[in-house]
Design a protein that fits this description.
By secondary structure, the protein is α+β, with helices and mostly antiparallel strands. Helix content is 38%, strand content 25%.
Length: 154
């Protein structure tokens, strides 16, 4: 009985929204853009100009979100593990020269330094990268790690 009420209520709501839209009455929850001219008045409207008004708190929240570092659980390929820091830094630099499009990270977990590469969302992407690097780094393997989100072009 509850399922039938949900279907009937949903159907009535859809019909009311469609009828209200046809009559020019904005339905609750429908957002219509405000078209404005150079001065921001709807009376001075020119085609193609949209003015978006948002709360100052939303602007502050979006700026704060953009400044924060966001990490995500994913995978990397570990290509180097050794206790010598200079050797690890050299290995990372050599990797970046050969593969400039793949990010490489140097980390330390006592007593070893690790060079891990890639920011991979799935293990399948990790397998593909590992297969590409296997000839150059025969002992490389996939490890779960916190990865960085790819940067969007600005």
């Amino acid at each position: 009985m509850g399922m039938m009420r949900t279907i009937v209520l949903g159907s009535v709501l859809c019909l009311w929204t469609a009828t209200a839209a046809q009559e020019g009455v904005p339905a609750k929850g429908v957002v219509r853009p405000v078209v404005a001219g150079a001065r921001g008045n709807a009376q001075d409207a020119s085609p193609g100009t949209v003015v978006v008004t948002e709360e100052p708190a939303v602007t502050t929240l979006m700026a704060d979100y953009a400044r924060r570092e966001h990490v995500l659980k994913g995978f990397r390929v570990q290509v180097f593990l050794n206790a010598d820091r200079k050797l690890a830094e050299t290995m990372r630099a050599q990797f970046l020269q050969k593969h400039p499009d793949v990010p490489a990270y140097l980390s330390y977990q006592a007593p070893n330094f690790k060079v891990r590469v890639g920011d991979l969302l799935t293990r399948l992407e990790g397998e593909k990268l590992r297969a590409e690097l296997k000839a150059e780094f025969p002992g490389c393997y996939i490890v779960p790690d916190e990865i960085e989100l790819p940067r969007l072009p600005e």
